[in-house]
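// run 5 | inverse folding | seed 20
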């Protein structure tokens, strides 16, 4: 039987071996270019291309041909990354230190809850003047609340603003966001240095723009009505807006590996689409006259795809969300046509196209998580299901959901470690309970959206609130178990790859005890890697603005130049527990500052009496956006 299963998977994957080589090669090439600590010479990409062409031309075996295809597409990804950087036209943040006009259309006036006198103007279709870049999609400008009294959503405004340059990482493990601000599709942020003036910026709307404006209005109404439900998690699940999620809920989700449930991702969209597809097929099958005359699978697929697309626009249709939608639609298309082989090939093609049009996307954690999670879903759906009899269709659905959760959790574990330096010990167990509940909550939320126009959304929202609150309670309980999440070295992500492969292969071969053993081994390896990280005695963040001293299992603030709120924000991001009692000094204590030759440093820590200092990286073009790299 085992030999037959290996033969089956060989037949499934063999036709796509070259497609997989091309897809993984393109992603590896683009990732290698953007991941280098220095800027490579222009000729490097050309040399890689010539070597790859030589392999392809001289190939005499399929192994060599696969290696040649991998290298060829890797070289293409590398060259396209170089070309993307050459074509980039970044904002001149050095010039932006002086006030310049920022003109745009108001999407939201957000009053800060901790300081009602201050507000943020969130604008779209933004024009900049005298800063190198003429247009960016979005901007966030800090203003006084009194300046926004006569400003309405949808109105054009002009604000004389100072833009803030992106900052390097403030603590160990924080992702360097300067690369995202280097390209024109990034959001700019700043603060007003003058009045907020209304403009006549109200262009005529087409039918499509009117529809999008209606969806945006619905999104805002949903946000207002649901922002206090289940600690803000209901709003995050319905519209992707996470700003109302309470710190306690966010921290519990983060420490238990459930953070992806607060963000609308490719895995979530795929599960939602498959759920809508299954429910629609089941409902249509109750009408024999319709089922005999119409291809109900096609009808259900169209309904599911429409639901996924609507959900995407309702959640803001960001670049990362559109990418996740494309991935999920490919899975739906493959399921509907019954040609899962086409789904695997479409996954490869979509990865290659993403690298071709925007190589930098491979550096985004969202792309990496969506790619591996959707690939796991495709493999699970492709697995043979002839031997399953327990529970009928409901049992099959529950089995598939659990298996998809475990496979996606195992495949994303190395990605999470590589990007965030965190391993969730209870992540798989937590997701096995939380994902089915959140899927049910999402379906109920879709029902609420359907009946919203007739005013019947209260009951579905109440049920959704109960389900999401149960997930919140589950996350808080798991977090309280102890060691739910551990910090691990980001550079050791590759250690988890064999463990993840073992989990996935065991499940696809239906070797359940092997899968349990592989999960246990992966958990042990993650905990073992955490033990390799010695606890720091002193932590200094944000170039010296915040410092913490270890006190047992927690840290106490030594100083915080910008106040205690800055400590809490940074500690949550770094996964450090901080005692919050007492006053915090607002001046630097030189006794606890590192002695370093670097004029600027990102963060520092003292371990066993020895200081480790991370200077601000300035070796790549996007690094130079930070003020520390201007000289």
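// decoded
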């Amino acid at each position: 039987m085992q030999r037959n299963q290996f033969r089956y998977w060989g037949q499934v994957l063999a036709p796509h071996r070259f497609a997989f080589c091309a897809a993984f090669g393109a992603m590896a090439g683009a990732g290698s270019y953007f991941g280098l600590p220095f800027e490579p010479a222009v000729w490097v990409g050309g040399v890689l291309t010539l070597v790859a062409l030589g392999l392809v031309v001289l190939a005499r075996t399929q192994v060599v041909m696969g290696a040649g295809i991998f290298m060829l597409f890797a070289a293409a990804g590398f060259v396209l990354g170089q070309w993307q950087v050459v074509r980039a036209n970044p904002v001149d943040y050095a010039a932006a230190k002086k006030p310049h006009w920022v003109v745009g259309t108001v999407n939201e006036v957000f009053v800060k809850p901790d300081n009602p006198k201050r507000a943020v103007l969130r604008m779209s279709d933004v024009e900049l003047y005298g800063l190198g870049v003429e247009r960016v999609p979005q901007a966030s400008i800090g203003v006084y609340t009194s300046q926004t009294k006569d400003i309405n959503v949808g109105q054009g405004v002009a604000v004389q603003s100072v833009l803030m340059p992106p900052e390097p990482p403030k603590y160990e493990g924080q992702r360097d966001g300067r690369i995202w601000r280097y390209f024109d599709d990034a959001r700019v942020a700043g603060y007003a240095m003058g009045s907020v003036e209304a403009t006549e910026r109200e262009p005529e709307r087409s039918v499509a723009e009117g529809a999008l404006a209606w969806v945006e209005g619905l999104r805002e109404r949903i946000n207002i009505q649901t922002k206090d439900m289940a600690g803000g998690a209901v709003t995050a699940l319905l519209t992707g807006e996470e700003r109302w999620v309470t710190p306690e809920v966010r921290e519990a989700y983060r420490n238990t590996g459930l953070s992806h449930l607060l963000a609308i991702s490719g895995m979530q969209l795929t599960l939602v689409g498959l759920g809508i597809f299954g429910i629609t097929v089941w409902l249509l099958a109750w009408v024999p006259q319709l089922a005999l005359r119409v291809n109900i699978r096609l009808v259900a697929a169209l309904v599911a795809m429409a639901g996924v697309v609507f959900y995407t626009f309702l959640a803001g249709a960001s670049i990362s969300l559109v990418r996740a939608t494309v991935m999920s639609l490919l899975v739906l298309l493959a399921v509907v046509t019954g040609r899962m082989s086409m789904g695997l090939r479409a996954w490869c093609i979509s990865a290659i196209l993403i690298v071709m049009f925007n190589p930098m996307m491979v550096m985004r954690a969202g792309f990496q998580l969506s790619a591996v999670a959707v690939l796991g879903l495709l493999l699970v759906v492709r697995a043979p299901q002839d031997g399953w009899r327990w529970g009928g269709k409901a049992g099959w659905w529950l089995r598939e959901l659990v298996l998809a959760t475990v496979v996606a959790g195992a495949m994303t574990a190395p990605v999470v470690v590589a990007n965030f330096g965190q391993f969730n010990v209870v992540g798989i167990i937590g997701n096995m309970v939380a994902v089915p509940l959140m899927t049910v909550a999402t379906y109920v939320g879709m029902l609420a959206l359907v009946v919203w126009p007739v005013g019947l959304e209260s009951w579905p929202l109440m049920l959704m609130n109960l389900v999401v609150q149960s997930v919140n309670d589950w996350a808080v309980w798991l977090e309280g178990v102890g060691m739910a999440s551990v910090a691990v070295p980001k550079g050791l992500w590759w250690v988890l790859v064999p463990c993840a492969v073992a989990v996935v292969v065991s499940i696809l071969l239906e070797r359940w005890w092997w899968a349990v053993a592989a999960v246990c081994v992966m958990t042990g390896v993650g905990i073992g890697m955490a033990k390799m990280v010695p606890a720091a005695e002193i932590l200094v963040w944000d170039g010296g603005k915040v410092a913490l001293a270890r006190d047992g299992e927690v840290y106490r603030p030594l100083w915080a130049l910008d106040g205690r709120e800055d400590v809490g924000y940074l500690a949550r991001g770094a996964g450090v527990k901080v005692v919050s009692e007492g006053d915090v000094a607002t001046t630097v204590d030189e006794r606890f500052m590192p002695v370093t030759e670097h004029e600027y440093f990102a963060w520092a820590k003292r371990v066993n009496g020895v200081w480790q200092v991370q200077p601000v990286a300035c070796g790549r073009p996007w690094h130079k956006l930070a003020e520390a790299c201007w000289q």
